[in-house]
Amino acid sequence: MSAWVPPAVSRAALALTGVSARTARRLSARTRTVVYRAGLADGRSVVIKLYAATARRNAITESAAIRAVADHVPVPALIGYGHVPGHEATALVTADLGPLTLGSAMRSGLISDERALKDLAGLLGRLHRAPVRPSAPRRPLHEQVTSLGRRCPPSSLDRISPALAAIADAVHTAPVWCHGDLHGDNVVIAGPRAICHLVDFTDAAAGPRESDVAQTLVMTDALSTPRTRTVTDAYLLALDHHLLGAWGVFHTLRSWAHSSPGDDRVLWTRRLDDLNRRAPHLFRTRRPERTR
Length: 292
Fold this sequence. Notes:
Blueprint: H1 7-17, E1 21-29, E2 33-40, E3 45-51, H2 59-69, E4 78-83, E5 90-95, H3 102-107, H4 113-127, H5 141-149, H6 154-159, H7 161-168, E6 176-178, E7 187-190, E8 195-198, E9 205-207, H8 209-219, H9 225-235, H10 241-258, H11 263-278
Helix pairs in contact: 4-9, 7-10, 8-10, 10-11
């Protein structure tokens, strides 16, 4: 007897794989995406990602990013993508690589923290070699700053204005495919050779490599000098380290702006203050008020 399967998952499976889904277990849920591991009637296990109609990107744009980089970095096999019949959502169906992620392997002690950082850097280096077509999606800086400005007070953006200026004034180089959210839990280890596969290309877009590397440094708490060097030494491609630091400040503030009140907000406040102490040139110095 089949377990209950959400209607959208059931319709997506049937429309995009030609086979009905017998089981479905939710793996993650974000504001505009939900991911399920589904068991199909033919015995296959697949991952079905549903995009809300209001999402900035959708399953079709994510599939395009996966296809564009597949020759350069391991990714899950695409099985189907498109609109879900009877729903406004779109769905992406990929092969199920299993539950073991680089993050879980590190937390359980199977892989050292240093090894995980090197693996992430190596994957970024391979990803950033993939050719970028003119039609690839992009996220201009002004769009990112505007988005951040909706979530934090003007004083916060003013505080990092030197970092923003460094990013805006940087010499433009050829854009690379940026994953946009690469950390241990977006890398799945699969197969007899334990190959690391990149997953979750929700935020993939063409942009500066320093932004993507800095995002990974921020998400893995690797902005201290020794940990940063572990990543940059394994990355192999050329980096502008001043620009890398500026993007690190920007992504840290963005993480602070998206953090939840309480311990999470305290954590990101502390990391932002630590960056201010280590790289004061990327922050606006607060001048004491003058009194008459």
